Automatic annotation (TrEMBL):
InterPro entries on file: Transp_IS110-like_N (IPR002525)
Organism of this sequence: Ktedonospora formicarum
Gene Ontology terms describing biological process: DNA transposition
Identification of the protein by name: Transposase IS110-like N-terminal domain-containing protein
GO molecular function, one term: DNA binding
Domain Transposase IS110-like N-terminal: 9-90
Recorded superkingdom: Bacteria
Amino acid sequence: MLLSESVYLGIDIGKNKHVAGFLSKTLLERHGRFEACATLLFENSREGFRRLVERLREMAPLEHYFILLERTGHYHRPLMQYLQDLDLPV
């Protein structure tokens, strides 16, 4: 668990599924390059969003995250609202 550092989360938005990529100083040191850092494929649904947040909590406290979403049409809006309702910076 990454307890004392910022974690950056980039999310590639799709119509049915999204892919989240995790990045932090420790993850980069551990894996050597950002392409090898952890990713998560999740559904574009409330259940998928819950799964994402569960994974976030496993890796670090929620207040350590900075999240960047791809703005693709309107498909990013439900996820953005869900994350903002949890007071996550998007």
